[in-house]
Amino acid sequence: MSDERASEAERSRASTAERAAAAGVSPAAVSEAMGEVDPSIYRHLADAQMNVELDTGDMILNLGPQHPATHGTLRLVVRLDGERVIAADPVIGYMHRGYEKLTEVRSYPQITTLINRIDWLSSFANEVPFIHGAELLMGIEAPPRAQYIRTILTELSRIATFLLFLGEMGLQVGALTPAFYGFRDREHVLNLIEAATGGRFHPNFNRIGGTKDDLPWGWVAETRNTMKVVLDACTDFDNLVAGNEIFEARTKGIGIIPGDVGAGYGVSGSNLRASGVDWDLRRDGKPYLVYPELDFKVWTHPDGDSFARYWVRLQETREAARMVIQMLDQLPAGPVMAKVPRIIKVPVGEVWVETENPLGQMGYYVISKGAIGPFRVKIRSASFSNVSILPWLLRGVYVPDVITILASLYFILGDIDR
Amino acid sequence: MDGTLALDLGWGTILAIKTLIVLAAIPAGAFILGYVFLLKMMSHMQSRLGPMDPGGFHGWFQLVGDGIKFLQKEDIMPAQADRRVFAIAPAIVVISTFLVFLVIPTGPDLIVKDLEVGVFYALAVSSLSVIGVLMAGWASANKFALLGALRAAAQLIAYELPLLLAVVGVVVQAQTMSLQGIVGAQQNGAIFGWDAIGNPFILTQFVGFALFLVAAQAELTQTPFDMPVAESELVSGYMVEYTGFRFLFFFIGEFGTAFAFSALAATLFLGGWAIPGVDDTGLANVLGPLVLFTKLMFVAFLMFWVRFTYPRLREDQLQAVAWKYLIPIGLANILVTGALKVAL
Q1: What is the per-residue pLDDT for A56?
Q2: What does pTM read for this prediction?
Q3: From CA B136, how far away is CA B126, in angstroms rounded?
Q4: Band of the pLDDT at A70, cuts 50, 70, 90?
Q5: pLDDT in tens, B200-257
Q6: A403 contacts in B (CB within 8 Å)?
Q7: What are the C-alpha distances in Å from B338 to residues A90, A333, B55, B160, B170?
Q8: Cβ pairs A/B, distance under 8 A
Q9: What spatial distance separates the first Cα and last Cα of chain B, rounded to whole Å?
Q10: Under a CB-based contact definition with an 8 Å cutoff, are residues A163 and A233 in contact?
Q11: CB distance B311–A399 less than 8 Å?
C-alpha cells in the first residue's frame, strides 16, 4: 500500500522538463500540448515547487493562505479532478518569525515571552518545557507547590485549546452554533488563567525556579466550579456534535492515519493516539512536573479517522478536567520560588526536554555556553510534524473532506512556522 | 367572491398596485426573516444577543443599515469576469423569487393571478434561480465560485424531483393545481368524515410536508445542504466575488426565496390564508395576510432551526439522500394517497 503511494509520488514529482527531454520532445511542443491550460497556473505551480504532468486537464486550487479553514496562513495547493484531490502540497512559512534565532539574543527570563507565542492557544504549556530545561541545566528544582501550579495551568490551557477545537470542528463541518459554544466555554477557563497569571493568552508566568506568584485567594474554589462547567460542556459537545448523524457521516472513515504511518511522519499527541498508538509523554516520557503522582487514563481510539481524533480530544478534555480537580485536592502548601541567583547564568551544557503539549510532542534542545542567554535553541513543535502527513493523507479525498481533515488534525500556524 | 376590498379601479391601477406590493414583499420578507431568524434567533441559540443598538429596539435597524452600507460600496468586478453575465446574474436570482409571489394567495381576492397551474408554475419559476447561480459562478472567473456553482446545479437537479413529488400528494387530494383551489380544499375538506377544522394537508400529507421541507432546504441551499455556499470550504461559493449592491441582491434573493418557500409550504400544507375551522368571516381579505404570515413564520422557524443546528453533508451524500431516500418515499406517498383517494 505505502510502496504504491511512494512510487506514485515519485512519478508525479518527475519534472516536466525531464519527462519532455526523456521523450525527445522540444519545449515548444510541450507548451503547444499544454495550449488549452491557462498559463497563469504555472505561476502558482512555481511557487509551490510542484511540477505538472503533460496530460493535465486538472484544476489547481489554492486553499489559503487566507482561507477560513486553515485558521491562519497555511496554504494548500491542491490539484483537483472534479472535486477529488489528486495531489495536495502544503506551503508553510507565511508566519515564520525566526524564534530559534531570536532566542540567541535574549536572556533566559526574556525567552518565555517569545515561546509563549508559538502555540498561542495554549501558551502556558509552551513555557513549561523550556523553563524545565533551563532548571535542569542549572540544577535547580522548583518547589512542589510551584510544580503543582504549573501542572494545573498546563492542563487548564489544554482544556482551553481543546474546547475551542471541539466547537471549531463543528464549524468546519458546517454547523455554526458549536463554534460559539466552544468560545463561550473556553472563556471560563481563560478567566481562570487570567486570574492566576494576569494574562489571558500570554501568561508569561513561569520563572526559572518556580512561578511568579502564588494563586490568588478563592481561585481553587472557583476552579472546582469551572471544571464542572467544563465537564457539562463536554457532554454538550458529545450530544450536539459527536452524536450528530451528519457529523458522523462526514468524519467516520475519512482521513484515516494508520498508527505506523502516523508515527513514521512524526505525528504526535492526540492525533497519534486517535490512531491507536498508546503513547503519551506525560506517562511514558521522562518524568516532568507532577504527572508521575497523578492517576489518569490515556485515551486511544483504534480507527484513526477524523471522528477518532475528535473523540480522543473530547475524552482528553474530560480527563484534563478530572486531573485538575485531582491536583486541587492534593495541592501542597509552601513557597512558589526556589532560591535562584539574581542574575541567571546557565552553566555550560546541553539538554533535551520534551513534553506532551495540547497539540502533541513539544521539545526544546538547549545548548548553553555559560552566558545569560542560550547559545542555540532548537524548537520541536507538534503542528509542524502533524501537517507533514498532509500530502500523503489528502490524496484521493474530496474537497469537503480536505476541510474536515485539516480541522481534525488541529494545528496552530504559530506552531508550524515558529 | 365579493371581498371587502372590491374597489372599482381600472386594470392599469390594479396592475400598478399589485406590482408595487409584490416588489415590496420580497425585500420586506427578506428583511423580516433576516432580522427575526438570522440576527435574533441564531444569536439567542448561540448564547449571545445579536445587534442591540441600531434603531433602539433590539437592533431592528441593523439590516436596513447594512443595506444602506451595501448600496454605497464600490462595485468591484474581477478583471477577468464576463462582465455582462456577472452583472445580470444576481438580478435573475431575485426575479425568480418575484415570480413565485405572483401566485401565492393572501386572501380570497388578494392574489396577483390565480393560475390554473399555480403550484406547477411556482415550482418551475423558483428553479430559475439556479441559472443565475450558474451564471454568477461561471462569470466570476474564480475557482471557488465555479465549484460552488456546479455544486448548486447538481444539487438543484437532484432536489427538484422530491419537491415535486411532495406536492403531487397535495394536488391529488385537492384535485386542483390552483393554489387558491388548494386553500379552499383544505378549508372545506374533511379528514375521514371529520370536518371541524377542515383538512389542513399537514395532517393527512405529513410525509409530503416533511419531504417538502427537506427538499426546500436543499433548494434554498441552507444547512445541511449548503455546499454551494459552504463558507468553511468554498468561502461562500458563487457569491465570493460579489460586493456592494450585487451582493445585496443575492442576500435578498436568499432570504426572499426562503420567504417564498415558507409561504408556499404554508399555503400547501397549513391552509394558507384561511383560519382552520372558521368559515368566511367577511374579513378574510384583511385577516388573510396576517394568518398566512403567522403560518409562514412557523414554517420558516423550522427551516432556520435546522439551518443553525446541523452540520453540512458532503456532495455525494446529498445525492444519496435524494435518490435513495427522498424520491422512493415521495413515490410511495403518492401511491398511498392515490389509493386512499380512490378507495374513499
Answers
A1: 45
A2: 0.80
A3: 17
A4: low
A5: 777 778 888 898 988 888 888 887 888 777 766 777 778 888 888 888 888 888 888 8
A6: 232-233
A7: 57, 80, 53, 21, 10
A8: 80
A9: 30
A10: yes
A11: no
Residue A288 and residue A184 share a domain: yes
Q: Indicate the residue among A67, A91, A115 that finishes a domain.
A: A91
Residues A67 and A104 in one domain: no
Which residue bears the cell 426562503? Answer: B258
Judge whether B223 is closer than 8 Å to chain A, CB to CB. Answer: yes
Number of domains in chain A: 2
| Nearest-CA distance B143 → chain A (Å) | 7
Q: CB–CB of A174 and B47 under 8 A?
A: no
Please provide residue A338's backbone torsions phi and psi, each rounded to the nearest 5 degrees: -85, 170
CA dihedral of B90, B94, B95, B96, whole degrees rounded to 10: 110
Q: Identify whether residues A61 and A210 lie together within a single domain.
A: no
Q: Please name the member of B147, B226, B315 whose beta carbon is closest to the beta carbon of A174.
A: B226
Rounded Cα distance between A214 and B182, Å, is 74
ipTM of the complex: 0.77
Query: How close B21 gets to chain A, by Cα (Å)?
Result: 35
- Structural domain for B192, as ranges: 11-343
Helical H segments across A373-412, by residue range: 382-387, 390-393, 399-409
Tell whether B6 is covered by a domain: no
Nearest Cα residue in chain A from B306 = A175
3-state secondary structure of B172: helix
Q: Tell me, what's the pLDDT at A312?
A: 92
8 A C-beta contact, residue A188 and residue A229? yes
User: For residue range B67-82, what is the model confidence (pLDDT) as tens digits?
Assistant: 888 888 888 888 888 8
Instruction: Report residue A73 CA to chain centroid gap.
Output: 14
3-state secondary structure of A88: strand
Digit-coded pLDDT (tens) for A284-309: 878 888 888 888 888 888 888 889 99
Strand partners, A100: none
Beta carbons of A59 and B143 less than 8 Å apart: yes
Q: How many CB atoms lie within 10 A of CB B146?
A: 21
Pair (A40, A122) in one structural domain = no
Backbone φ and ψ of A88, nearest 5°: -135, 135
Residue A14 pLDDT > 60:
no
- Domain shared by A37 and A182, yes or no: no
Question: A 207-266 residues with CB below 8 A of B?
Answer: 241, 244, 246-247, 249-250
Indicate the pLDDT class of residue B124, thresholds 50, 70 and 90.
confident
Note the helical H segments in A53-122: 99-102, 108-115
Dihedral of CA A107/A113/A119/A125: which sign? Answer: positive
Cα B88 from Cα A204, distance rounded (Å): 56
Question: Nearest-CA residue of chain B relative to A181?
Answer: B46
